[in-house]
Amino acid sequence: MNKSRNKWGWSLLAVLLAFSVVLSACGQGKTQGDASQGEGGQAAGGELAGKKIALIMQLNIGTFSSQYIEGVKEQAEKLGGKVTVFASDNDLAKMASNLDAAINQKFDGILIDHGTAEALEAGVKKAVEKNIPVVAFDADLKVPGVTVLQQNDKKLAELSLEQLAKDIGGKGNIVKIWVAGFAPMERRQVAYEAFRAKYPDIKEVAAFGAATQNTALDTQAQMEAILTKYPNKGDITAVWASWDEFAKGAARAIQQAGRTEIKIYGIDMSDEDLQIIQDPNFSWVASAAVDPKDIGKVQVRYLYHKFKGEQTPDVVELDPSFVTRDALPKDKQISTAELSQYVKGWGGSEQGYTDWLRALEKK
Q: Domains in the chain and their CATH numbers?
């Protein structure tokens, strides 16, 4: 009798175990179905909503930076994320510390704006090891798994320099405003050296530049000193400014000195820059640039690709547009939001967009 009961008990236990295995398999099948649905963007919203994103910036000055931040925040918020900006005041040690803080505070993802490999590589590797995705902009980083956005700096420099050479007939005296120590600047310098070799009759009579908390104001003071050193019309034919903060300072110095025969050719574009270029009282006449809001938006999109576990390129290059005063309306002031009406290729970049990202935005 006891043997019979034991045999019956073991049989019942076996049936129950088999039933639980079936239920478990059904549950797994449902999870896998949801995941595959997520690949098309249907279930991705739940996994990707509410992401906390750190934006680590080397230098946050001027309207270009403010519009770049605006683009980052706008795109992240559309995707349900929240951005916290860590400003480093051009202090690389502080930038490295900010990166460590973002890792320790367990942000879901990290965006980096400029910086050097020496300052950031250790922190970025630490983030990757902790499965925190990283997307950088204009930082010379080569860490496996990290995507770096960069403007086509060679083309930016070439567009502005070739227009300068064309306008001055391939000869004259120029001032270069440039600063070392930034990856995009180093790439622009390579193009500048090629330009010098190509146009031997264009002479560099002065070169200066420093990235400070008051770059435009400091550049203005330095440009005023250059104008004092070269006081005669014809002493300086043109200025090449490798950054819009440099161009703004130079434009104000030249305008105040009444030397607007000296034309300025720059790089980067913001609403403030556009106002100066449109104003005939200033001599900044052209600039090669990528829409700063687009840069921020594209950077966020690639971060979300990483959130979703997708492979992303090591380097994403952003192609510039070329903005000249002649292409802009004479009867009204416009903003960069309207610039696409007058400049081909400006704004509205679709880089990094996918159907599932658009679906997530709708959620």
A: 50-151+293-319 (3.40.50.2300), 153-289 (3.40.50.2300)
Residue 340, SS3? Answer: helix
Structure tokens at 170: 């391939």
Residue-averaged pLDDT of the chain: 89
Asked if 88 contacts 94 with a C-beta cutoff of 8 angstroms, the reply is: yes
The single-letter code of the amino acid at 204 is: E
Tens digits of per-residue pLDDT, 43-73?
334 589 899 999 999 999 888 999 999 999 9
| C-alpha to C-alpha distance for 322 and 37, rounded to whole angstroms | 42
Residue 302 contacts residue 76 (beta carbons within 8 Å): no
Q: If pLDDT is split at 50, 70 and 90, which confidence band does 107 have?
A: very high
For every residue of 270-331, DSSP letters joined together read: -HHHHHHHH-TTS-EEEEEE--HHHHHHHHHHHHHHHHTT----SEEEE--EEEEGGGS-SS
Query: In sequence order, which residues have a C-beta less than 8 Å from that of residue 360 and are 6 or more positions away?
Result: 41, 44, 45, 48, 79, 80, 304
Cβ proximity of 110 and 134 under 8 Å? yes
Check pLDDT > 50 for residue 198: yes
Q: What is the pLDDT of residue 26?
A: 37
SS3 per-residue string spanning 259-273: CCCCEEEEECCCHHH
* DSSP label of 348: -
Q: Would you say 258 and 278 are in contact if contact means Cβ atoms under 8 Å apart? A: no
Asked if residues 102 and 54 have their Cβ atoms less than 8 Å apart, the reply is yes
pLDDT tens digits, residue range 210-253? 999 899 999 999 999 999 999 999 999 999 999 999 999 999 99
Measure the CA–CA gap between 48 and 46, rounded to whole angstroms.
6
pTM of the model: 0.82
Which tens digits make up the pLDDT trace of 285-316? 999 999 999 999 999 999 999 999 999 999 99
| Eight-state DSSP code of residue 148 | E
Task: State the pairing for strand pair 321-324/284-289.
Answer: antiparallel
Q: 90-94, long-range: CB within 8 Å, 24+ apart, which pairs?
A: 90/58, 90/59, 90/211, 90/212, 90/213, 92/58, 92/116, 92/118, 92/119, 93/119
